[in-house]
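Page 42, continued from yesterday. The earlier attempt failed because a stray header line got pasted into the input along with the sequence. Redoing it now with the clean sequence only.
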Amino acid sequence: MAKLSKLARMGSGSAARSVIGGVAALPVGRDTGAMELLSVGRIPWGMVIALVDTGPKQIGSREVWSCRRQKSPYYKAWLGQSRKDYRAMLAAVRRLDFTEVGEIAEANALAMHACMMATRPSLIYWRGATIELIAFAQRMRRDGIETYITIDAGPNVVFFCKLPDIERVRGAVADTRLAKSVIVCRPAVPRNRRTRMTKVIIPGKVMLSGEYAVLRGWTAVLIPVPRSVIISECASESAGSLSRLSIPRFD
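This time it went through. Structure tokens are written below.
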């Protein structure tokens, strides 16, 4: 699996971690594969995803990061902070320190968006509901429900929480009526990666730190979610080899 992950990273950072399972880390360098920090059975955390906008992005991710690298005054500082966050996140995950993992993930995501917002002209993915949900997570912490947010290059908010709190967080987020839909994600693993060499199941992921910094050869820490791309192949004497690709819906 380590060799396969290394080969996958030549094309995609996301693909590299998909073959590992559990909480995965992507070390520095383009010639390194992902490494497993926690097996799926040891992950005590989950995610509640608040879908604020389910439409396509107005600006593609590759275009955004190419523009930000050239035009954001905070780009180099963001990369430097991502390196520090990566080291701290590795230690926190291995200690199963939920509070520190959550604090790093939230700060890392907000720093990434601050870098985008400072780009000239500014790149802003957030909606009004995005900001309200960030504030709502802070209120939940003050009220005794420990949850932290992370946001990828888009407006949707992911609430990171302990597994025993996941339904409570889901209900609270749904009650705000700020999201078009709410998805609960518990730890997932690529089950039956290969069944008689005919099926590969690749779970989705949420970045805990290093979102898009990994595209510049830096580091990232990720956790899997139970929405998977499934590639299956069957062979018969009459039809030859038949392949099928299944992609999950998120609405």
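Notes: Helices lie at 2-9, 13-18, 61-71, 75-94, 98-117, 128-142, 166-176.
Reminder to self: strip header lines before submitting.
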